[in-house]
Specification:
Elements: H1 8-21, H2 33-39, H3 44-54, H4 59-64, H5 67-83
Length: 84
């Protein structure tokens, strides 16, 4: 499985920024990459909120794998963000 070099918080924040600026979502920019690069950090708190919500897996997620491992992984992402 590939492992990202970008933090989970940054990746979520970039998705949220892209939704706001890209014409492929709710924005108006046909080529939103540069704008996402410039604004993703403004979505950092939203990304952290999403991660905090994901700490507890739902029933389908728990049935598919190790719920305790999932929680540890999400908490590790939150801890890494707090340390940066």
């Amino acid at each position: 499985m590939p492992v990202s070099n970008t933090s989970l918080v940054e990746r979520i924040a970039r998705v949220l920024a892209g939704r706001d600026v890209s014409i492929n979502a709710e924005g108006h920019d046909a080529s939103a990459g540069t704008r996402v690069d410039e604004t993703w950090y403004q979505y950092r708190d939203d990304a952290i909120s999403v991660l905090k919500t994901l700490r507890e897996p739902d029933a389908a997620m728990a049935a598919a794998g190790d719920a305790e491992m999932w929680e540890r992984m999400v908490l590790a992402a939150l801890d890494a963000e707090a340390a940066s």
